[in-house]
Prior knowledge:
Layout: E1 2-13, E2 20-23, H1 32-36, H2 39-49, E3 58-61, E4 69-73, E5 79-82, H3 84-95, E6 99-102, H4 118-139, H5 141-144, E7 148-150, H6 166-183, E8 188-194, E9 197-198, E10 201-202, H7 208-218, E11 234-236, H8 244-261, E12 270-272, H9 291-309, E13 318-321, E14 341-346, E15 353-358, H10 360-368, E16 374-378, E17 385-392, E18 404-411, E19 421-429, E20 437-443, H11 448-454, H12 464-472, E21 477-481, E22 488-492, E23 495-503, E24 513-521, E25 524-530, E26 539-547, E27 556-557, E28 567-570, E29 577-585, E30 597-599
Parallel strand pairs: 1-19, 2-3, 3-6, 7-8, 8-11, 11-12, 12-13
Antiparallel strand pairs: 1-16, 4-5, 9-10, 14-15, 16-17, 17-18, 18-23, 19-22, 20-21, 20-23, 24-25, 25-28, 26-27, 26-29, 29-30
Helix pairs in contact: 4-6, 6-7, 8-9, 9-10, 11-12
Amino acid sequence: MYLKVNSDDVRGTFQxxxxxxxxxxxxxxxxxxxxxxxxxxxxxxxxxxxxxxxxIEQVRIHWLLDLITVPTYSTEGQPEYNFTYLxxxxxxxxxxxxxxxxxxxxxxxxxxxxxxxxxxxxxxxxLIKLIATSYIQxxxxxxxxxxxxxxxxxxxCEDFDMKFTLKGFANYYDATSEGLMQAHPDLIFGGPAxxxxxxxxxxxxxxxxxxxxxxxxxxxxYFSDKIGTRVDFISLHKKGDGKAMNIIEDTxxxxxxxxxxxxxxxxxxxxxxxxxxxxxxxKDLAWRADSIYGAMVVKIIAQHQNIFRANPDSPVNFxxxxxxxxxxxxxxxxxxxxxxxxxxxxxxxxPRYTTFVQKxxxxxxxxxxxxxxxxxxxxxxxxxxxxxxxVYYPSGNDTSDSWQMSILVxxxxxxxxxxxxxxxxxxxxxxxxxxxxxxAVFALGNDPYGVWxxxxxxxxYPTQSQWDYIRLQEPVKSGxxxxxxxxxxxxxxxxxxxxxxxAKSDMAPxxxxxLRFINITVGQVLVIWSDDNIKTKCIYTxxxxxxxxxxxGPYQRVNKVDTIxxxxxxxxxxxxxxxxxxxxxxxxxxxFYSNAxxxxxxxxx
Length: 605
């Protein structure tokens, strides 16, 4: 494999359009809060939010409105809404640096029964306005206007918890749009969130998606009585059936069909917010456990960048790709379901507890987060291997920020393990503004699943020593060095390798902020922090330090493995005491420690 890269050959801006995941709570929907607000989900969201540099920022969640209840009615007969559960979930997202992909989906206490009834249509509009204005008041407009409000998920699948006629569904759309517009005109709303077959050729009985688009373009809005209703983005779900290019081809075909039927929608921003390699999140598929999945995610993102976003003649105005992999796996498929982390439910202890292991696909998202904001031309890509190259120029020199260049190389035969290997030959012309350089090579070589299978025989309840060895395999593997970078090295399929080169800044990394904890069980604690205050991506690791007796120390490092994700399991946890965290850059310069925070074992989650 031969790659030719010139840091001066910038071809355009590079946006991180893939920073999204999602999940669906299980049945029954009216008890979605039991899942969404569980201790397990709180850990899961912490891991999702721990992808550095806001590498994942959106979590698209089904059945959000079923978190709202109606305990009573006013004297005028209007429902009195209780937002407690929804408030708690939004806060949990916010504290992890995340935001909701807000699917307007669900039926609070089954209040709504007929969307051809004018009273209920207006009541729905008022509910949506209340939701949006409440969160604008709580978190500010800038946060809420970044949310993607979206129509009911996959309406042609007819997974409703109320009755919808086609006309009623159009009324529901107009009422949602109007409620958001009344809350603030900058709020975003789109759809049809289709995923049950080719648009207009559903495998199911419903034709809601086609009807809705026709209504948006050609019919009168319920409230304005004028032709046309806004749609800020077109969202469809295109999955790969095991092949990366299937996603691209189906996207092109669907948008071509939409463009023919509705020419005014042809250039709307397009979201594939369930762009998974394979349908069915809970399927037991071994390739989801190791680097096959991670490398394929990198490949899919690279293909979308090069075919759609970097192509001036792109047939699709592609703006967002989401991997729907924020679910909670369950025994005995801890690693092999479509998730970012593997969940272990430890039921042979008292008390029982749950802990998680980062999968290679989580590591892939970490690697992707280190890419820059301008795309550099790469001389070669083919169906199985290729690269993304980016460069980054800092806006000022009064922080730890500096010039950076990244090359993310992948070799993926989709869901096949592959047997290919060969030499990667890199012709890399580098023109940094500062001759003092450092770099790190991050490889998707971590394999906690292989350790668990090969050495631990898939034990449901690993011992402490087994956990220690499994967790050694969690983080993306890194190794800093000094230029010169070797021009050749072996690459084995499946693989993703990131070369990250930085000019040396004048300043060490900034102070870590937001230190907090989640209690796992006696002797185990999940330590979480934020990198929002850190201005550089040239971070080699974070050091977690602990003092058992005094806030002033002495402290010793307690995280056994280097990590660039902003999370670490400390186990065995010594005892109650003070924790603090600092960043270390490629030159081994340390930033200021975070404020020390005391951790009591009995603190609730």
